[in-house]
Amino acid sequence: MSLYNIIYERLLFMHSLIYIKTNPKLSPKHLEFNKLVQIIEKLGVELNREEQKLEMFSDYYIKNIIPVQEAHSKVKIEMAIALDDMSEADKLPKTTLNELEVIIPELLSDSFEYLQPDDITKAIFEKWTDSNYDDIINEVKEEQLDEMAEFMKSMGLDIDLSDLDMDDPASAEKFYEKVHEAKQKYESENIERKSARKKTKKQLEAEELEKMQDELKNKNLRSVYLSLAKILHPDSETDPDLKLEKEEVMKQVTKAYEDKDIITMLVIETQWLKNTEERLANIKEDVAAIYIQLLKEQAKKLRQQKAALRYHPRFQHVNTYVTDKVDRGMLRLSLQKETIERDIRNIQKEIGIIKSSPRNDVKKFIKTLAQKYYKDPMDDFINFFKYL
Q1: Which ranges of 90-197 would DSSP assign to H, the alpha helix?
Q2: What is the Cα–Cα distance from 308 to 322, expressed in whole angstroms?
Q3: What is the DSSP string of 157-182?
Q4: Are 197 and 174 in contact (CB under 8 A)?
Q5: Is the confidence at residue 22, as pLDDT, over 60?
Q6: Which of 36, 249, 300, 319 could be joined to 295 by an S-S link, Cβ 3.0–4.6 Å?
Q7: DSSP string spanning 284-346?
Q8: Over the Cα atoms of the chain, what is R_g?
């Protein structure tokens, strides 16, 4: 079970935590507490729904899009080989050769995104580009790493990229974890730098208040723990099934206490207590204020997790669909699959023309084909600004 599902399941039953429509005993602080619980419940549901959506998109992409992309690449390689064979068999005019210098490298470059080149396709690529394929790949990778390192530096993150392999999902996952750790370290060091400066009277007062709140939180944490230990102690239960259930829940309580996770303990407590309205009304306002702060922090974490989900390496191949609802995303994915399949059929027809048509017809066809594969340098410039 993923982290996100664990969080979701924990938060799902927070619906029963405190849900009060009217109670004259409740102060604004108590009502704010109640509202925050509902916000966290909603965020948990949204987080789970977002992950399920991306999982669905990713599953469809892996099972349906990747295979047709590979098939697409194979027919492009087949066309590149057919054009190369034709150039060897017939003496072609300079204009046709120039057009092949556009078509063949483009066909092979597109194919190499999804299929590892073999010696034959590498040789054809190097013949029509007058370049060494491995050297080009290494240069591109170095440029990507340099750009990434500069970006990380600009963000204040010091990360070693020497062992990063852009083509290895496991390496990308490890890099993602490194970025997360470095970000946390940077934020922690930034807090330490700020705390090292001479503090104003207002800052000192805020620190003192935070210290008092921590003391109160720890005190209340122990209070909740003792209360739960008394309610859930298995030895006080005669029913065998209920005794086993209490044993399992008590394990969760003990772990939450050790982790100082008061939110989990509150959730468990309210599962076993009946009069939640009275309990909330009897909570002191300073204690309610501590709970509110904890819930705000939890809500902040859930929002961050939801925002970061789309950038996770396992979803990077479907990140263009992240803003789509499920139905629209699945429709767009199926249309992408149909478009690739249609292009495969078109390329197969074009290969037939190259192999079987008269020489003059093939030359005219190559001229038309070159226009399809020629890329205006301005296209990259325009596309760059499209994604800003």
Answers
A1: 94-112, 119-129, 133-154, 169-196
A2: 12
A3: -----TT--TT-HHHHHHHHHHHHHH
A4: no
A5: no
A6: 36
A7: -HHHHHHHHHHHHHHHHHHHHHHHHHTTSGGGGGGGGGTTS-HHHHHHHHHHHHHHHHHHHHH
A8: 31
Length of the chain: 388
pLDDT confidence of 370, banded at 50, 70, 90? confident
User: CB neighbours of 357 closer than 8 A, spacing ≥ 6?
Assistant: 365
Could you tell me the CA-to-CA distances from 53 to 5, 299, 322, 323, 358 in Å, in that order?
Answer: 13, 21, 8, 10, 52
Cα-Cα-Cα-Cα torsion 25, 31, 33, 38, nearest 10 degrees, comes to 130
Q: Per the structure block, which two tokens stand in for 234?
A: 């298995």
pLDDT in tens, 280-301: 555 666 666 766 777 787 788 8
How many angstroms separate the Cα of 374 from the Cα of each of 97, 354, 382?
14, 19, 16
State the pTM of this model. 0.62
- Please tell me the number of Cα atoms within 13 Å of 321 on its side-chain side: 26
